[in-house]
């Protein structure tokens, strides 16, 4: 086994072309810059054509993937998905300045309608409630977790 490793290292060293190293090269890294490798025995890859059925399955036509996004939702509705524990997705957030925010996450459907309903139910102004569109979240100023939980639980109990 050891003999095979020695033979392979000698074979590799015979493939290297030695280039004269200038006298200014002081470290082994600088000396290594002047050693070239002969790439004549490099493996050549043979490219095989991909199966058209496989490509059609992996990359559907753009018209199929975009059309569902363009269709509007029928009517106006919203839904709160519960968290993994089965609780309402209402959280508090504190920033470094000491301000407290209440976040309602996991909103599906019309977020603007949910925001306006919250404003009406809690008598809030436009400055106290805003929507994060990137992550479907409604943010309220202040710690309003208890109010929101009682409001939303009473709403779910009515249905």
UniProtKB/TrEMBL annotation:
<dbReference type="GO" id="GO:0005762">
    <property type="term" value="C:mitochondrial large ribosomal subunit"/>
</dbReference>
<dbReference type="GO" id="GO:0006412">
    <property type="term" value="P:translation"/>
</dbReference>
<protein>
    <recommendedName>
        <fullName>Large ribosomal subunit protein mL49</fullName>
    </recommendedName>
</protein>
<dbReference type="InterPro" id="IPR007740">
    <property type="entry name" value="Ribosomal_mL49"/>
</dbReference>
<keyword id="KW-0496">Mitochondrion</keyword>
<comment type="similarity">
    <text>Belongs to the mitochondrion-specific ribosomal protein mL49 family.</text>
</comment>
<keyword id="KW-0689">Ribosomal protein</keyword>
<keyword id="KW-0687">Ribonucleoprotein</keyword>
<dbReference type="GO" id="GO:0003735">
    <property type="term" value="F:structural constituent of ribosome"/>
</dbReference>
<dbReference type="Pfam" id="PF05046">
    <property type="entry name" value="Img2"/>
</dbReference>
